[in-house]
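Reading a protein record of the kind used here takes only a little practice. Think of the row as the fold of the chain written in a discrete alphabet. With that in mind, consider the following protein and its fold in token form:
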Amino acid sequence: MASIFGFRSRDPARDRQTDLSRFDRLAKLLDQIAGEIEAEKTGLENRYRSKATSAAFLVEAMENGSASASRSSEVTELTNSILNCERRIAALTRQNSLMKELRHSIDGIIDENGAYGSDRQAEFVNRARTGTT
């Protein structure tokens, strides 16, 4: 668009398309990071259960006299490992919540900018939301 002063601005449809493209990339990045967080959390939860089971059996064996009391350092080590796992799982849970909030914010921004006017742009918004290309 040209004005009488020679200043040219871009077509608003092009601006919207550029914005939607950025939001799409950001949404995909947030989804990728959320997947990484979830994978780490799942692996950690599996190790946590294993450590907790080992600690429980070791303590029971020590109480029954089938394991020597000298293995108490092993119990302490397992206990520390379990506590570290719990802290990390809590941190990952908070991170995952943050990713969900950020992703929801992006959806809100797209919704806020509302009706993009064309079926092609509406399709692009839907693809950005679902992560399909």
